Amino acid sequence: MVISSAFVLRRPRLIPCLTGLHWVPLLYTHWQVDLAPLSRMNFLRHLILTAMLVMLCSHCGGPGSPNGLQQSPYKALHINPFKPGNYHHFRTQKGYPRNYSIYKDSRVLAQTNESNSSIRIDLSEQRAYLMNDSKLAMDYPVATGRSAFPTPPGKYMVLEKIKSGKRYAT
């Protein structure tokens, strides 16, 4: 196998870098391989030896192996990026929407009455939203049917309001 290399200086090109655009002469390396003197068996032998050398020099440790100082895998911490007390903080807390927490915006809730309020229920999240026009007054969990008897989507009106304590399914 005859291998020859040649270094060729090409014309300068405009190369982008961190400080701006610069004219840099590029140095190219050309490798020419002449396979005529080699037999096919010799070529395969060299290819196999090269592959074995690459495998021998490669890293064998898996990504799951801890380093020497680490005794057990680290657990991810949930860090809420929003300030406590606002709705973004409420929605990004751990477990939302499958938790039983209730969000109330007292300022919007004080301005809510029958003429400007509506309730939007999200069946996929099992959450209800009390809206004052386009502002959110409350976000709370609801139970909307079972898999055998699902709640059909649609627009409904509240016909009767009963003030009582907690109600439980039987």
Features:
single chain, 170 residues, 4-stranded antiparallel β-sheet, two-stranded antiparallel sheet
* Rg value: 34 Å
Number of helices: 3
The geometry reads as elongated
Order of helices and strands: EEEEHHEHEEE
Mean pLDDT value: 75
Runs with pLDDT <50, length 5+? 1-9, 22-32
The count of β-strands is 8
**Fraction in beta strands:** 25-35%
Largest sheet: 4 strands, antiparallel
Distance between the termini: 86 Å
Alpha-beta content class: alpha+beta
General description of the model:
- The protein is elongated, with a radius of gyration of 34 Å.
- The chain has 3 helices and 8 strands.
- Among the domains are: 2-55, no CATH class; 87-141, no CATH class.
- 16% of the residues lie in helices and 28% in strands.
- Residues 1-9 and 22-32 have low confidence and may be disordered.
- The termini are far apart.
- It has helices at residues 40-57, 87-91, 106-110, and strands spanning 2-9, 13-17, 20-24, 27-34, 103-104, 117-122, 127-132, 135-141.
- A hairpin with a 4-residue loop joins β6 and β7 (127-132).
- With 170 residues, the chain is of the alpha+beta class.
- The chain has a 4-stranded antiparallel beta sheet. Strands 1-4 form a two-stranded antiparallel sheet.
